[in-house]
Write a structure and sequence with these properties.
By secondary structure, the protein is mainly alpha-helical. The chain contains 9 helices and no strands.
């Protein structure tokens, strides 16, 4: 099934309404869809490098809007279903403590999920579930998704097809190392 979704997404890169399809894929990927928008972005940018920034902008805006849907899913369904069940089980206080811990590092969680291969949809839903401040979630999502999509666009615009293999296979690792180094740097500055 995943392979069929991947093939369908790749076929849409040549469609006359590819930007609209990219917007839809980026939107739903942020809360439920398993295929990342990069799969559609890459062939679109390779086919029209002069549109790289527009393509990255569409993916960024749509992904953040979809992330807000994921946030809403976590926020509204937790309030109506999850919280009463946890309180009935006597776990309401434990969840409040978890929410405080998550929201204490929420900026980093959203940033990390937004630029690495970690599923962004998990963090969007968790951010709503823990009632992370919406402004923090949105600003961090904009930074993370723009960083991810504009780096991909810049690499493809600059290097073309030869960078495709690198992006598809190794860019997630590079972003993960970058985030680890960034967090490590802040940790060193704070505690040393």
């Amino acid at each position: 099934m995943l392979r069929r979704l991947y093939d369908w997404t790749m076929a849409k890169a040549d469609h006359p309404r590819a930007l609209w399809i990219l917007a839809a894929v980026a939107f739903i990927e942020s809360s439920v869809f398993p295929i990342p928008p990069d799969v559609l972005m890459i062939p679109m940018i390779l086919a029209a490098p002069h549109r790289a920034w527009l393509i990255a902008a569409v993916a960024t805006v749509s992904s953040v809007l979809g992330g807000m849907l994921g946030y809403g899913i976590g926020f509204f369904f937790y309030e109506s279903l999850g919280q009463p069940i946890l309180e009935a089980l006597g776990k309401g206080d434990a969840m409040a403590a978890f929410n405080e811990q998550f929201n204490g590092v929420g900026f980093w969680a959203v940033l990390t999920a937004g630029v690495t291969p970690f599923p962004y949809k998990v963090i969007t839903i968790m951010s709503g579930w823990t009632a992370m401040p919406l402004a923090t979630f949105v600003v961090t999502s904009i930074i993370a998704r723009a960083l991810r999509f504009f780096v991909v666009a810049a690499l493809l615009r600059s290097f073309g097809a030869p960078i495709r293999d690198f992006i598809e296979k190794r860019l997630g690792l590079v972003f993960t190392v970058f985030v680890v180094l960034l967090i490590g740097g802040f940790f060193l500055v704070k505690y040393l």
